[in-house]
Every structure is written in C-alpha cells, then in structure tokens.
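Possible race condition, two jobs.
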Amino acid sequence: MKAFLTRRYMFSASHRLQNDGMTVEENREIYGKCNNPHGHGHNYKLEVTVSGQVAQDTGMVCNLADLDGFVNREIIERFDLQNLNYMTEFSHTIPTTENLCKVIFDILHRGFRHAHLEKVRFEETMMNSFEYAGGGEVRH
C-alpha cells in the first residue's frame, strides 16, 4: 500500500528580487516592492511530501524523526535567518520563491533516502504559494 506523508516546517529568510541584467526601471516594474534595495523578509512555510509503501512493522511511510532530522539539518539550519541573495545557491539565480522551491527540492532529492520525495510546497504569504515536484516548472 502506497501512502503520502506531508510534513510542515517554518523558517524566516530575506531576499531582494533583482536582475542585474535589467535597468533600475525594469527591475522596479517587474519586481515592484520586492526590489527594495534593503530587501524584505518572509516567514516561509515549507511542506515536504514524501511517499512510499507503508511498512508492516511500523505502519508508517517513514520515520518522522528521520524526515525532521534531515530537514532541520539540511534546510532549516542552512536557510533560517539568512539573506538568500548572499547564499551560494543563489549566486547565479534570482532568489525568488520559485527558485527556492527548486533548490530545496534538489537538496531533499539528493539526500533523503527514507522515502520517495514527491514535492515541496512553499507558502510565502497568505496570497502566494509555490510547488515543485522536480523535472518541470514550478506551479503557482
């Protein structure tokens, strides 16, 4: 029996949306207030969905302690209270939440081996959420 498990995590980070290949006016037009020279922050809500066979002996897709430990060590400790613009993951990429979805998915996909990674979902604000399931486009 295949089942899905979604676990929610929270962290805070800041960023400035800026494309250095565009003019000041183009950046303001495209990114609006998100182009603030001093940046701005979000209290991100991250959902990680994994799937797998329900183990006969535990009745679980995976041990929550394994998932929580990995996410805390590899995601929360890395990104919490950081300015995304200064992180190596975004040295050549604009730190939009769409791109953050992909970065987080790739970290989980490479390292978490206790269940199959289905997708990551971010709530950036009450009005904005983003999903990424690998190999394609980020869904809004």
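Job #2 (started ~2 s after job #1):
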Amino acid sequence: MECKVEKTKNANEVELEIKIEAEKFENAIRKVYFQSAKYFNIPGFRKGKAPQHIVEKYYGKEIFYEDAFNDLVPAEYEKALNENKIEAVSRPHIDVVTMEKGQDLVFKAIVQTKPEVKLGKYKGIEIEKIEYNVKDEDINHELGHMQDQNARLVTIEDRPVEDGDIVKIDFEGFVDGKAFEGGKAQNHELTIGSHSFIEGFEDQIIGMKIDDEKEIKVTFPKEYFMKDLEGKPATFKVKLHEIKKKELPELDDEFAKDVSEFDTLKELKQSIKEKLEKQNADREKYEKQEAVIKAVTDTMKVDIPTGMIELETENMLKDMEQRLSYQGLKMDQYLKMIDKTEDDLKKDYEPQAIEAIKSRLALEAIIKAEKIEATDEEVKEKLEEMAKNYGKKPEELQNNENIKSYLKNGIVSEKAIEFLVENSKVKAKAK
C-alpha cells in the first residue's frame, strides 16, 4: 500500500490518495466470489457451481468490485491513518480513482482531523464558591419520604373523596362525541392531587362517593404528546369504585426501629444528615469541576470540524435510543410522540455536543501541556476494580490493551480535572 497525504483548502482537513496493489485487489475479488458463489444460478451449471470467470462474463466483470472494495478498503484506510499519524474525527468522503481488475486499486479519502487547541488561562481560574448545607427541612423531607413508603392504606366507606385520597375508577374519554384511543381504563388507581391526569380532572373527582357516576369536562393542553388531542375539550365518563387513604406512622423511636437499624429517631436523623452531607459534598465537587472546565473552554480557541460534531450528536442519539429501549420505547415511537424528526433532535443536541467536544479537547490539551500520566500501579488498581465489578479475575482483563487504554485515559482525565480544581481560586458568590 502507498499513501500520499495533502492538506485541503479547508482547515483541519486532509486528502489521502491510497494505492493498493493489484494482487491484493484480485485476492479480495476472489474472496468475495467464494463467499457469494452459492447465490448465482447460471444456465448450464448447478446453482453455486459456476466458475468465477463465467459469473463475471454473465453478470459483468464489475460484479464483485463493490463488495471487494468494501472488504479490503476499511483496514487499508485505518493502516494509512496510523502510518501517517492522522487523527481522523469524521467519516471519510471516498472517491474511486482506479478500480479495474489487474490494476492497482486507487482511491482518495477526504477526512477531517482533530483540531489544534490554543489554551487560554487554565491556572488560577476564579470560580464562585459552591456550598450546600444540610437544613432541618432537608432531613424532615427525607423522613417524610420514609413515612410515605411505610404508610398503610385504609379503606374509606363513610365519606366522599378528599384531596390526597387514592381512588379506583373506570373512565372513558370522548372528544367531539367520539371515544379516542387510549382514553379508556378500568379499575385505574389515581392519587388525588398528584396532577398525573389532565389538569382539572382530579379536582372534579373530589366529592364523589363510592358507586357514583359522573361526567367530567376538561381541556387537553395546547402542547400534548398526542397531536390530534392538543387543546381540544373532552368529556370523561367516570365511575368511582373505591376510596383509600394513606395512614402515616408516627415519627418516634418505634418508627426508627421499624424502618432502620437504629434504636432512636435521633440516631436515624443523624444518619440521614450524614447521608445528605455526603451527597452535598459530591454535588459540590461535581459542580466545581464543571465550573473550571467551562472557564477553560470559554477562553480557549479551537475550530471544531463539522464531522466531529455530527459523530458526537449521533453518539448522543445512540445513548438516548438505548435509554428509551429500557422503557420499552423505540426511537421512531418517541419521535412521533414529540412530533420531531431525527434531524430535529440532532439539531437540539448540537450545542450540548459542541460543549462536550470542547471539554474533551481542553482536557487533552492540559494533559499534554502539564505532562500528566497514569502510573502502572494506578492502571492496575482500576483494572482490579473493573474486574471485581464485572465478576471477573484481573488476569482476564490485563492483556486487553483496549481496556487498559480506556482506563489510562480515564485516569489522566481525572487527574487533569483535579489539577484544574486545585489550581483554581474561590471567590465570593455574587449577590
């Protein structure tokens, strides 16, 4: 393989002209023929038994070119990038120059490269003081959650529905006199005051008694996930079956014993306080890191290639698609619900993608400038931690260079962030 590299007129972009020996191209064609021969049905031959030259004569000599190209080129392209120390940040634009049996395969690849970063000030950055203190109301809020989780449900039969009650209802919704899809349910459990239904619906349940039937009139929000119902008035026929109310336990020592390993309410409160203090400390640390990184990216100069942004937004969409799958949703269903296209979503993600790229490039530049490294011992420690988390032995991972490289990058990035925080200055919070 031969490769010539030239810069294009565009910033952070190069053109590679790659020549692959005719013999390699011929071998790739031969490989594709053997992989696909069984699909060819040519008169005079049993299916899949026609020789290569007969298949080429029958279908045209170019029949295997595209598949041979796709089989051969990716590895050769990667090899060319590595040999020329090119850090590609976009998919290549490929143009074939020569693709002919018996000749060298020649193609050009235009690709965007990692941009140069000019750091501004990154030592002695001033950030506002970030501090979160645990208040009594925070502790009481946590206790309230614990009370709610340990409440018992009491059936109510001698009064109508009140705010806060949990009811079971049948309902069916109508718009313009016609029932609509998804507007019907039986024995639906609803907490009055939860605002989980259309605004105004729950308020009209208040005052109903068991076995009461009622027509409830509401209007769908102007921005509703089902576009055909947006802003439309609707009538729901409702029947009430059951009323229940949560009965909260008393906040005393017995409660502490029932819900925790502590013997007194005082000890439980202290434990909650310590947990919240730890959460606040983690939050402070994270926000300080975000603040210093933002300050660095605001002062640095970098021209981010469009292809780099495209790849970042695509990766964000893939992450989102995976999260949606955990909820039993597909991307096309979600897009329909929010009335957007995939391109719309990419555009929405673009500012976030640019910030993520800037942060990554800034850290890489600081790691280089400050010669930050990960020691073998640090990598070993992280490797052992990863092995433990995945239920494996460290020996199973230690020969995997990709994993070691991933861990090393994580360590140096953490060190770079710590460096920024340690070398920052805290100023009083603006009033």
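The two ends are 65 Å apart (CA to CA).
Logs attached separately.
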